[in-house]
Design a protein that fits this description.
The structure is a single chain. By secondary structure, the chain is an alpha/beta fold. It has a single domain, classed as SPOUT methyltransferase, trefoil knot domain (Alpha/beta knot, 3-Layer(aba) Sandwich). 20% of the residues lie in helices and 19% in strands. The protein has helices spanning 15-27, 110-115, 130-145, and strands spanning 4-10, 32-36, 59-62, 75-79, 86-87, 96-101, 118-121. Helix 1 packs parallel to helix 3. It is globular. It starts with a strand and ends in a 30-residue tail after the last helix. The relative contact order is 0.20.
């Protein structure tokens, strides 16, 4: 997969959520993780991350939206349930993106929404856990930009790489 991505949260207040977000970002190959205006105790939230992401990819802490400094060409994508947000399943991810999620009990600030190049919403009935929302966004990015073959039209899948000779459901394999 070409390009890069980062993920972060604004005003996150629970260390375990930031730790889970960092761990998932590491698993999906994020280039860096960041937080804006996190609770003071969260400055060491990486202790809750069992994959020790902070020792493998950069973790940036910003005290305010004004301090957020992204690489040139990186598009900021807000994840928020707004009326004008694009539904995640129809969103074309930028090749260079930084995704920003809101706090556990609130929304992205007007200041960060004003800086966003795109605002995307996950098609749920109500807000979900911040680390779960981050995982869904990263999975969708991975799925849409990962170069996977189209899904089969029948339930199930084709094991292996999908090339001729692969196991077909209902048929016995040669032993």
């Amino acid at each position: 997969m070409r390009g890069y991505f980062a993920i972060g949260s604004e005003r996150i207040s629970k260390a375990m959520n930031l730790g889970a977000l960092m761990r998932t970002a590491n698993a999906f190959g994020a280039s860096f993780v960041f937080s804006i205006d996190a609770e003071h105790e969260l400055r060491k939230a990486y202790a809750a991350d069992t994959s020790k992401t902070a020792g493998q990819i950069p973790y940036y802490q910003y005290d305010s939206v004004d301090e957020l400094n992204l690489p040139r060409g990186c598009q900021l994508v807000g994840i928020e349930l707004t009326d004008d947000a694009v539904m995640l399943p129809t969103f074309k991810h930028p090749m260079q993106a930084a995704y920003i999620l809101g706090p556990e009990k609130g929304n992205l600030s007007d200041a960060i929404l004003a800086r966003c190049d795109h605002v995307v919403k996950i098609p749920t009935k109500f807000c979900i856990n911040v680390s779960l929302a981050g995982a869904l966004v990263m999975y969708d990015r991975h799925l849409s930009l990962g170069g996977y073959a189209p899904r089969p039209i029948m339930p199930g899948g084709i094991p292996g790489d999908g090339k001729a000779g692969a196991h077909v459901p209902g048929k016995d394999r040669k032993k």
